[in-house]
Amino acid sequence: MTTFAALVSGTGWHVQDLLRAAGTLDVVLHVLPFGEVEASIGSGSGRVSADGVALDGLDGVLVRMMPPGGLEPVVFRMDALHRLESLGVPIWNPPRAVEASVDKYLTLSLVERRGLPIPPTWVGQTAASAMAAFDELGGDVVVKPLFGSEGRGLMRVGHRELAWRCFHALERLGSVIYLQRWIRHPGHDLRLFVLGGRVLGAMRRTAQGGEWRTNIAIGGRAEAWTPDAEAERLAVAAAEAVGAVFAGVDLIEDLDQGRRVLIEVNAVPGWRALTQATGVDVAAALLDSFREAVR
User: Fold this and answer.
1) Quick one: the chain helix, strand, coil %, rounded to 5?
2) Closest to 75 in 3D by CA, of 95, 45, 47
3) Distance between CA atoms of 86 and 83, rounded to whole angstroms?
4) Torsion sign across C-alpha atoms 212, 214, 220, 222
5) pTM of the predicted model, to two decimals?
6) Nearest-angstrom CA–CA distance, 63 and 29
């Protein structure tokens, strides 16, 4: 019998799907709140636990979702994962992959280092520098939060006065300003789910109702899509670049450049829309692969 823990934020659909899959695979799965992780050191044990369950005594830990929080709680949670890894506990995804993929700048830096195509991107901390970058990027950009998912907080800015107001507001808030050249695309993007060095399934996400963002969480429509060899190569290489065993990799077609570019690598990806669109049992494949890896 294999015993895993899933560190989660809430007990929604994905957690229930993992529990369902665990039942079919004869896997014991402890669902534990990330916010209840605690650790002890200096007592000879170096224990890491959550909700009374000793994580360092399990066969593996699955990082499902980290809840939002201040800098100190987030840093501690990552420290605890690193501690577990140092104790020999297999963690999917590894802490370094989670750290890399949650930070859009770091993600694209690692992806570009592999020679993979990315959109022109600028990151900085002052509105004045952001205005200069806005001009260099063609005066039409997407402003993104450095940390974020599901398309939340994205804004297209194509007017200089609006850019000035937006960048100064972000500066006053003490936020990092993240700008990406607007990509003229065909109204859809591609999400590929990579697991263990191969693409498990893929879908096309199409924006709806005049919205330019394709994310399912804000109304995008998903349909099954069969990836070609080039898309698979890009997705697998991007997951490897951030050190992820499994990942949701997003590609978009740049109509002006005539090529696909990588826009995101998510090391804690959702799969509800993918499962509904393709019929692929992602939860079962994920747990089964993890079980095989720790044997």
Assistant:
1) 40, 30, 35
2) 95
3) 5
4) positive
5) 0.92
6) 12
Task: Show the tokens assigned to 130.
Answer: 């952001």
Q: Output the CATH code of domain 101-117+185-280.
A: 3.30.470.20
**Structure tokens belonging to residue 172:** 């006053």
Q: Which two tokens stand for residue 99?
A: 């750290």
Helix, strand or coil, per DSSP, at residue 185: coil
Q: Where are the beta strands (DSSP E) in the chain?
A: 2-8, 27-33, 37-39, 48-50, 53-54, 60-63, 91-92, 121-124, 141-144, 155-157, 177-181, 188-195, 198-206, 221-224, 246-254, 259-266
Q: Read off the pLDDT of residues 180-236 as tens digits, 9 standing for 90 and up.
A: 999 999 889 999 999 999 999 999 999 877 677 777 777 778 999 999 999 999 999
Q: Where in the chain is the domain with CATH 3.40.50.20?
A: 2-92
> 83: closest CA among 53, 117, 36, 49?
49
Q: Are 164 and 129 in contact (CB under 8 A)?
A: no
**pLDDT tens, 4-52?**
999 999 889 999 999 999 999 999 999 999 999 999 988 666 689 999 9
Could you count the other beta carbons within 10 Å of the beta carbon of residue 66? 19
The architecture that CATH gives domain 2-92 is: 3-Layer(aba) Sandwich (3.40)
- Return the CATH architecture of domain 121-181: 2-Layer Sandwich (3.30)
Closest to 195 (Cα-Cα) out of 88, 100, 124, 286:
286
